[in-house]
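Whether sequence alone determines local backbone shape is best considered at the level of individual chains. The sequence in question and its structure tokens are set out directly beneath this paragraph.

***
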Amino acid sequence: MALRVVLARPQRDLPPEFPKGDLDAVAGTLELVPQMSAEGAIHALTYARPKLSRIRRHSVRIEDSDALPDVPRGGAIDQAITRLIADVDTAREWYDDRAQEAADQSPFPEAATTTGSPELGALAQRATNVADRTAAIAAELAAGATPGSVPADNLNRRVRDIEVLTRQEGIELAASRPRPRLIDRLNRAIVNSLPWVQTALRAVQVGADFSKVAIERFNNAMTRWGTVICEEISGFARDSDRLLERYQRELAGHQPPAFVVLPPPGTVFRDVDAPWCPEMVVVPAGTFLMGSPDNEEGRSDDEGPQHRVTIAKPFAIGRFAITFAEYDHFCDATGYDKHGDRGGGRARRPVIKVSWEDAQAYVAWLSRETGKPYRLPSEAEWEYACRAGTTTPFSFGETITPEQVNYDGNHPYAGGKKGLYRGDTVPVASLPANPWGLYEMHGNVLEWCEDHWHDSYDGAPPDGRAWLDTDAVAGALRVWRGGSCFDHARHVRSACRYVTMGGPSARPEVRVVLFGFRIARVLEP
């Protein structure tokens, strides 16, 4: 992640007090958040937030230190962390909303919560008692912590044993019960008792050595309380089994929400195993800078201001632009007019001369045939997928060649050499894919997006949804992206936007020679 890159310095080059462990922990945690459930993500983001604030407090000292000449200056580290903190806060709010929605949609009645069930309330009280009993260790040990001659190593081992055992039992309990909200509540009560054990350890370690009597008292206490904790966990498992069976009988005909695992990023799939159904690729959730920086060669004013967009959920986008073969099947099935191919051939070549309205007719038909919510990608989704994690003008780097992209090779980019000009489309998958496995995002055919056209990104949505004007008149202009085989290299950059080709040709009903499209859809839980 960007933060790890900004601060990735050898340990000896950072001030001793810098929380390097916090940095690594936060980076690792945030990388896993898109794969978590809503409740898991909330816990992870809550864990990361204070650590980020601590890291930020140290960033000013790092940037001001003359002893670290290679560290970025001018507040770069502080700005990176500030942006990340804002992203974490936004993500936490989003996951809070999702968790609340899931709770509101649960078929279990209020009796399934501790506030509405005396039996479950008793379970929660027993969990609280575990924390209270474990807290007693702190008082007992503090009373007997007199300096002595026995090392504290075995104290560490005892605490670790209890912690590992408690966590292991709690994890197994949570994994084996299909009542995630109840079991998670009980498990948290148990795990929350562990800081008391750790506090007790710190209290008795102050003097480094302790008397034999104090050690024995500690060992006895840990053995006693460890047994109690394990017994309580086993009791939770038995009682939650019994209550679950009762609620299942009472709620006959209702099923608890299923646990759904979305396919991992990069997965290629078809919703129907047939050649007419387009191949899709799963794109990960993430955040990126949309638009181009002021100094990017070939930039237009409508590509700014550059702004941060967060794609909160993974989604699927077409591996290729829709082909003639796929579109012709739609036409045969519906009686829709087929489009000419300029004599270049059909089959695996991208369909051309498609209006925005034609593309909408196709996705509506495909949604009916597959039962899945297909649509055109938003402009933000399109650029996010095109960039595939890169920040350069092209997903292939600072420049391109005709061996990578189908464009007018007579007009290269950024000092590149002239090359082949094909003057026509190529079949999909003829050229290399971008880092996320998507083909011909640059060049070949222009691709329609869902959005209305806007002259700049002032006021653009920060969440990646399509930017639609509620008061737009019929025929309002739409957006194309990607450039075509006729275009100069600068027009096929990741950030380049199109609305005209010698006139207002981005009207939704207009068909121009190299208009095509690719599709997207939500990954349903």
Notes: The chain has a mean pLDDT of 74. The CA atoms of residues 8 and 20 lie 9 Å apart. DSSP finds twelve helices and 13 strands in the chain. The first strand starts at residue 147 and ends at 151.
